[in-house]
Amino acid sequence: MSDASGDLFPTFGRSADAFGRFMRSRGMRWFALCVVGGFLFLAGLHGAAVLYEKAKVNAKVAELKAEGQPVVWTELVPKAVPEDQNAWALYSKAADLIRAHQGVPATTPFYRLTRYSVMDWRDPARMAAVTRLVAEDMDALALVKAAAGRPQCWFEEDWSDPVSMEMPHTSAARELARLAGSGAIVASAQGDQGEAVDRLRAGFALSRYVSSEPCTIDELTAFAIDSLMSEAAGKVVGRGPVPEDKARALAGELSSGEYIAKFVRAEQMERGILRHVFDDLRRHPSQMGSFLNSDGQRTSGAWWWCCGMLMRPVVYADELVYLEYMDKALASAKLPWRETDAAKNPGKQDEVDVPDWAAITQMLAMSPSKSAQRRDEAVANRALVGAALGIELYKQKVGRYPATLDDVRKAMAWEIEPDPFSGEDLIYRPIGTAYLLYSIGPDLKDDGGQPMYDQLPRQDKPQGRNPDREHGDIVWMGTWKGRK
User: What distance in Å separates the CA atoms of residue 214 and residue 96, rounded to the nearest whole number?
Assistant: First the structure.
């Protein structure tokens, strides 16, 4: 096993010497040079790709700035207002009172307020319970009415981290709107139409304040409040004579929505917040795992940091795709829903048309078409309430319902908003001692005054597992033939 030199492992020794000579050879030096050079070349190529994609994003952002558009979310954060002018100072006290009356701890989140969340205004037994609750919450209702008279509303949210902001005011606003709507119906049932209309106005004012917040969730909350208050108005307007001054005050509130401008601002805020997400991914590459690791398993920070660094040019390219997508979304948000591509192609309204490789945009971008539809449904509901008020005032003055909406405009100097889904007048038909009033709704067809599924009383809803919720008209239920 040994040679003359006494080496016990001569083969190994010779192999080690050969390997040493190879490592010192010119070929190895060229191999090492190629490896290092290749690494530097790829690193340079990666750096150039980062700079190139970053330059395109910066150019797009500069273009948006030149157009006067906000590109950073902080530009749209609501400004604080003095407490004596701030409606939220009263709304929050009203929500605290409801929380106390519900018998839950003061630390209970607003989203757990359920005092008015389950109610059926068509059920006499339920209405007796609602009447009792409203009587107990008169102090909270007085605050909601007083808040409607304040000039501004700042919800005092913590905007330090817009991605994870909780926004408890939306839950509180929904419960306060249920109180205002319930209070209006109770007042009308007790014969006090003036007080009922005041409470309706307070509910619609709450919707206006919520929609002033520049977030999509606030817009959707405002649309839901408008739907609820419109349903309540259908059980108030026409139940008895309405004082004209209070009716005109409510009509003024109804026409102050400015929903398209607010909706566009919410979309701009969403763009600013998601740009912040892209920036955060580049500053903290290891966070890439939270987007790409779909199995929910905890991943190595070092591994995802390397992946995030390698994907920096892709993240810039993805952001550019997102910005271009939002250009189209904002252009669509500025239009009435009837003029959008989603209205013309209803089967594609929820699609986000971006390349498959733009994974972050695919995950974060939301089609605004459904929200835009809900926005115009809220506009239609407000128009219906305003028109119904004018019609009832006309009847109080003339003694009969008008033949046309133009009669209301002329006799009462009353402004009636157009149907947002047709761009023309709401459809009005006198029928005996009542009338039919409706918007053609998001299917953009006149269905003869057949209400949409969600408007129908429970006993009139079509049976089936997958009801058609999109077809039908948005009907003024105050005088609909199925009214209970």
Answer: 25
Res 314 pLDDT > 70: yes
CB atoms within 10 A of CB 343: 21
Cβ contacts of 286 within 8 Å, gap of 6 or more: 301, 302, 304, 305, 308
> What is the residue whose two structure tokens read 């919720």?
469
Enter the tokens of residue 138: 């008169």
The pLDDT-based confidence of 296 (bands split at 50, 70, 90) is: very low
Mean pLDDT of the chain: 84
Residue 87 lies in a domain: yes
Residue that finishes a domain, picked among 257, 289, 319: 257
Quick one: 396 and 271 in the same domain?
Answer: no
Domain count, the chain: 3
Closest CA to 349 of 371, 327, 334: 371
pTM of the predicted model as reported, rounded to 2 decimal places: 0.85
Q: How confident is the model at residue 146 (pLDDT cuts 50, 70, 90)?
A: very high
* In the chain, % of residues over pLDDT 90: 51
Burial class (CB in 10 A: 0-12, 13-18, 19+), 33: exposed
- Domain range for residue 431? 390-484
**Mean local confidence (pLDDT), 397-419:** 95
Whether residues 237 and 248 fall in one domain: yes
Beta carbons within 8 Å of 58's beta carbon, 6+ residues apart:
none
